[in-house]
Amino acid sequence: MDKKEIRSSNILFLLKCLLFSYILTGGFLLLLALFLYKFQLSEKIVSIAIIVIYVIAVFFAGFMTGKRMGSRKFLWGLAVGLAYFAVMALISLAVNHEFKDLGTHFFTTLSICAAGGMLGGMLS
Questions:
Q1: SS3 of residue 40 by DSSP
Q2: Coil, strand, or helix at residue 1?
Q3: Is the pTM of this model over 0.85?
Q4: CA distance 22 to 3
Q5: CA 24 from chain center: how many Å?
Q6: CA R_g for the chain
Q7: Pair 78, 114: CB distance under 8 Å
Q8: Domain count, the chain
Q9: What is the pLDDT of residues 56-108, one digit of tens each?
Q10: Domain of 35, in residue numbers
Q11: DSSP readout, 66-120?
């Protein structure tokens, strides 16, 4: 295989990992909604659970990407974490037509997604 085929194969795999992470996020958010309905959780617990869901989803995507790529695993994990955040930010922009809480939550979520993906890549 030449470099162009390998590069396109890697990008396709990265997109598959992103899709997996969003499916995982959706499943966990549905489970969180069920817990919220059944147990009437506080806002603080829900916020913490959402952060944990982001970290778990991006960690597994970074882990799978790192396993596949073999070298520079932490960079591939970082890339998948940043891509996860970018898609999430674009969807948020499309729905809200603005970035709400740009100062605090935007950069916090960016850091969480990048760190989770990088950790997954490093541990793969």
A1: coil
A2: coil
A3: yes
A4: 29
A5: 9
A6: 16
A7: yes
A8: 1
A9: 999 999 999 999 888 889 999 999 999 999 999 888 888 877 766 555 688 89
A10: 2-121
A11: HHHH-SSHHHHHHHHHHHHHHHHHHHHHHHHSS-TTIIIIIHHHHHHHHHHHHHH
